[in-house]
Amino acid sequence: MEHFSACTLDCPDVCSTIVEIDEQGNTSIKGNPAHPVTQGYTCKKGKHALARINAPDRITTPLMRDGATFAPVSWEKALNAIANKISTLRSTPERMLHVRGFGFHGVLADTSRYLFGQLEASSTHGALCDNAIIESCILDFGELDQNSYTELLNADCIVNWGRDVLRSSIHTAALLKDAQNNGCQLISISPVSPEEGMRIHVSNTHIQIRPGTDRFLAAAIIRRLSEAGIPNTILNRTSNGSEFLAFIKKLDEKKLLDACGIRSEELNTLVEIYGKENCAVSSILGWGLQRYTYGGENVRYINALSMLSGNIGKKGAGSYGGVSTGRNFDSTWRSGSKTARKLLTPKLADEILDAGDIEFLWCDGTNAVNQTPEANKMAKAFNTIDMVVVVDAFMNDTAKRADIILPCALIYEREDILGSYFHNYIQHSAKVITPRGEARADYDIIKDLANRLSIPFPERDEILTTALNTKPITNLTKNPLEKIRRQGFLPTDWPTVAFKDMQFKHPDGKYRFPDPVLHDELKASVDFPLSLLSLINKDFEHSQIPADKQQEQLKAYVYPATLTQSNIEPDAQAYIVSPIGKIQVQVVADTSVHPEAVIVRRGGWMMFNRCPNTIIEAHVTDIGWNAAYYSQRVRLEPIEQ
Ligand SMILES: Nc1nc2c(c(=O)[nH]1)N[C@H]1C(S)=C(S)[C@@H](COP(=O)(O)OP(=O)(O)OC[C@H]3O[C@@H](n4cnc5c(=O)[nH]c(N)nc54)[C@H](O)[C@@H]3O)O[C@H]1N2
Ligand SMILES: Nc1nc2c(c(=O)[nH]1)N[C@H]1C(S)=C(S)[C@@H](COP(=O)(O)OP(=O)(O)OC[C@H]3O[C@@H](n4cnc5c(=O)[nH]c(N)nc54)[C@H](O)[C@@H]3O)O[C@H]1N2
Ligand SMILES: [Mo]
């Protein structure tokens, strides 16, 4: 029997899937061939869902701390203990904190937000993921929007500014290949060259940039374009174009190129592409380049380049920064929510310790101790809280620090609907399997808790029906809930070209350039000369990695000459040292890595000594209050054998 469903992982592709359960009860997952983006295949991390559902170490009963270990308890006992604790804090809601991640996406996934909003508990602001891109695009365009993904196939050239499509989004990678086969030129810009073992880009030309410095390269291209003259038809659509260009013209090209470590021939290539008449250039903004102290500025200079080169509001062109996953859904069902105060996500450890009065924490959809900078301090902060509740299915670094663990149903064991931050379809993630053991869907857990607290709670179908009642959906589909449940996904009604006629969502309808300033990247010091890039894993989503895949030591990929300078032999043991700690790694010599960078794959757990966040400080981006993980400076130290 085949069932339509969808992947709820935090991923741009948001695949529509088909779950097949045969007569013997064997289950398999494949991509839905009818979905225009999924096209019949899914990636390894998506397929991995079944292994997680059936994992022997999965938590399937509520657990309560009993000294250094946990003991199974009934739902009744666990939820009563939580409800009692919340009841004592109703008059001081700021002492309750809700931390939610995006380990699972969806509309119903937001019900915990609704409940803690009704309680007016403390919550968080800022992000670990992509808020620097989001907020920067909103500052530039007035809203977060981009051309449809299908427009990439109309591009003459696609410049991929640091998106690792082969790992993060295999359907984008396939699209780029198709574009290339149609004769589109592909250029990639990143600190990792595609030539060697790290193979990350589908491109004809690769430009290797110093970590965190894309804004200098974008400024250098704009400077050349401005010398040739920017048409008034473009400048008239901006609110501060003359001021911005006056600043750009005063910049020194050599200094800009030195700052980003780019050769003038490479600049010439980019100037030729962005400056060519009748050449539609699509610029893809990677999430990597915004994870820096001036990550927002990086994004804004690339957007400025798209704008000034005439590539906004045009077919086959544009800046691809993403769209909001929630833009197709009505969220009024959770209106009326309030929050006592907001703690800053990238600095959550210090924020909890400084507040000093948090007595209750509810953590869902995130391995927050592991994924937030200063992971050891996060662990300490969790230990200061009287009752920590973690809703998860695995005994990860966060669950280990809980007082009560509530076992959640996983993907395919619960229903939800969700959008994508890359394409415009909405998907139905159907429940096709009964939750294992005593696991329950987050919605059911939250509703049960709300009942115990006498807080009225909307029904599942009421939420889904309200959420689907928006113009982009109802313009194309009547009875959307019934239809999406039947066919697995729905199209939505968006123009294929964003910002048509160069109309922007600012009050004056015009585009905004950043302030006329270019910030230097944090200086490397003699003690900490290298940038630590903690990049994603191909096969797993962030920390959702099985324990048996974490038994090997963490590897660090380093340029050979950089290893020599650090007196370390290839394949030797070494420490990566930062101002807050060190982590033992096996080094791998890799000529594809920028000489000033060290690359590790993120997501490994602290308990296996594989968590880079134990040595990453809580840097915050200039825009969007995002974690600036890649601004971490480190050195390599040999370990005498
Ligand atoms: N397999 C898998 N897929 C995922 C995820 C996962 O964990 N696993 N996570 C999902 C999520 S939540 C996200 S946010 C995305 C992340 O997706 P990506 O942003 O693609 O992933 P990262 O590995 O963070 O960053 C990728 C790239 O940024 C480049 N980069 C680093 N610094 C710079 C710079 O200064 N300039 C430029 N131009 N490039 C730079 C690196 O070389 C690398 O190729 O992936 C999503 N998809
Ligand atoms: N060093 C470093 N760290 C980073 C980054 C970096 O660049 N460098 N980037 C980060 C980025 S891009 C992101 S998006 C964040 C991600 O950080 P997190 O949001 O913490 O993501 P995951 O590690 O995937 O953890 C998600 C958790 O949700 C659980 N889960 C899955 N399904 C469900 C469900 O239905 N219900 C509940 N309650 N739980 C569920 C999983 O078991 C898992 O433990 O981390 C960031 N961390
Ligand atoms: Mo992310």
UniProtKB/TrEMBL annotation:
<dbReference type="InterPro" id="IPR006656">
    <property type="entry name" value="Mopterin_OxRdtase"/>
</dbReference>
<dbReference type="Pfam" id="PF00384">
    <property type="entry name" value="Molybdopterin"/>
</dbReference>
<protein>
    <submittedName>
        <fullName>Molybdopterin-dependent oxidoreductase</fullName>
    </submittedName>
</protein>
<keyword id="KW-0408">Iron</keyword>
<keyword id="KW-0411">Iron-sulfur</keyword>
<keyword id="KW-0479">Metal-binding</keyword>
<dbReference type="InterPro" id="IPR009010">
    <property type="entry name" value="Asp_de-COase-like_dom_sf"/>
</dbReference>
<dbReference type="Pfam" id="PF04879">
    <property type="entry name" value="Molybdop_Fe4S4"/>
</dbReference>
<dbReference type="InterPro" id="IPR006963">
    <property type="entry name" value="Mopterin_OxRdtase_4Fe-4S_dom"/>
</dbReference>
<dbReference type="InterPro" id="IPR050612">
    <property type="entry name" value="Prok_Mopterin_Oxidored"/>
</dbReference>
<feature type="domain" description="4Fe-4S Mo/W bis-MGD-type">
    <location>
        <begin position="1"/>
        <end position="57"/>
    </location>
</feature>
